């Protein structure tokens, strides 16, 4: 065992857990604003909630926090370059992208495995991050589109093992 106070050791341990990768986007002053996030997970069916963790040093989240609606796009497996772009310099994040959007301002990445139109539900301080809870208002999902996965500091794709699990089966946290 190694001390958890060593951030390099902690990052290495966190990298052992795969996560989905999402874009969090909205229109701010009639321009798309967004970021990529890998600390994203489902939370609740009733009410329908998802969460993401945002670094307290983020300059993008303060712009998105006050919008009426934010879009969450679950990146598809072939969208790793787009994910890197949305994690890059703010002024280049939407270069060459024709995002989709709702009338309320949520912005979505085209071709995503799922698109969730959300409103801010709660924010909880959590060390050097803020845990953001988003309430899902509307959504579109295509289970046939493979998601992009972040694991061991790199992007991965899933390999299906149909004999071991069926859609909808799996851990429920109960």
Automatic annotation (TrEMBL):
Domain Flavin reductase like, first and last residues per copy: 14-157
Record GO terms (molecular function): FMN binding; riboflavin reductase (NADPH) activity
Q: Does the keyword Transport apply?
A: no
Source organism superkingdom: Bacteria
Q: Name one Pfam family in it.
A: Flavin_Reduct
What InterPro entries does the database record attribute to this sequence?
Flavin_Rdtase-like_dom, NADH-dep_flavin_reductase, Split_barrel_FMN-bd
Q: SUPFAM superfamilies this protein is in?
A: FMN-binding split barrel
Stretches that traverse the bilayer: none
Q: Which UniProt keywords apply?
A: Oxidoreductase
Query: Which family is annotated?
Result: Belongs to the non-flavoprotein flavin reductase family.
Protein name stated in the entry: Putative oxidoreductase
Originating species: Gordonia amarae NBRC 15530
């Amino acid at each position: 065992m190694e001390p958890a106070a060593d951030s390099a050791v902690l990052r290495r341990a966190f990298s052992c857990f795969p996560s989905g990768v999402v874009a969090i986007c909205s229109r701010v002053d009639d321009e798309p604003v967004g970021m990529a996030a890998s600390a994203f997970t489902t939370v609740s069916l009733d009410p329908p909630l998802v969460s993401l963790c945002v670094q307290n040093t983020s300059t993008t989240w303060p712009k998105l926090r006050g919008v009426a609606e934010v879009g969450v796009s679950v990146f598809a497996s072939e969208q790793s370059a787009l994910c890197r772009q949305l994690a890059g310099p703010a002024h280049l994040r939407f270069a060459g992208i024709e995002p989709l959007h709702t009338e309320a301002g949520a912005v979505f990445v085209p071709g995503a495995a799922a698109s969730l139109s959300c409103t801010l539900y709660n924010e909880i301080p959590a060390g050097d991050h803020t845990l953001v809870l988003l309430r899902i208002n509307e959504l579109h999902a295509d289970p046939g589109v493979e998601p992009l996965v972040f694991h061991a500091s790199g992007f991965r794709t899933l390999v299906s093992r149909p004999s071991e699990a069926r859609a909808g089966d799996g851990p429920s946290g109960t």
